[in-house]
Design goal:
By secondary structure, the chain is α+β, with helices and mostly antiparallel strands. It has a single domain (2-145), classed as Gcn5-related N-acetyltransferase (GNAT) (Aminopeptidase). Helices cover 36% and strands 28% of the residues. It has four helices and seven strands. The protein has helices at residues 11-25, 31-48, 85-97, 109-117; strands at residues 2-5, 50-56, 59-67, 70-76, 101-105, 121-126, 137-141. It has a seven-stranded mixed β-sheet with strand order 1-2-3-4-5-7-6. The chain starts with a strand and ends in a 12-residue tail after the last strand.
Amino acid sequence: MTIRQGTTADHNALLLVWLASVRATHTFLTESDIQSLTPVVRDEALPALEIWVLCADDQPVGFAGLAGNNLEALFIHPDHTGKGGGKLLVEHARRLKGPLVVDVNEQNPSALAFYESQGFRVIGRSERDSGGRPFPILHMAEPSAGESPSPGS
């Protein structure tokens, strides 16, 4: 697997990765929730973030989105989970930005376990996500990234 910087031309493929990943891992979301989040990801998140694309055989299979040292997004297509791609993206982001912070849906225990395995620990909790929806968020950081939750939480 390789990692390269994302471009606008990647956005459609990355949206498909996001959709497949969210449907496989975010079981607390309804299809209606996913449909309402899709334009936010497509029109706001992907264009605003520094995107790094994980490729297998030159095809996007995952991505990380960064805003400073905040890992705003990390999604792997379900066909490629458990193969080390998430760890590669976290290590790449760490090399670029230093110690990282991340917000994780409390209702996504596999993501929580993944980030804990990468050295993150919970430093705070919010009852609602950044969009004000009733999905509790765990604020996590690597020990040297600081002790306060990420901005806007």
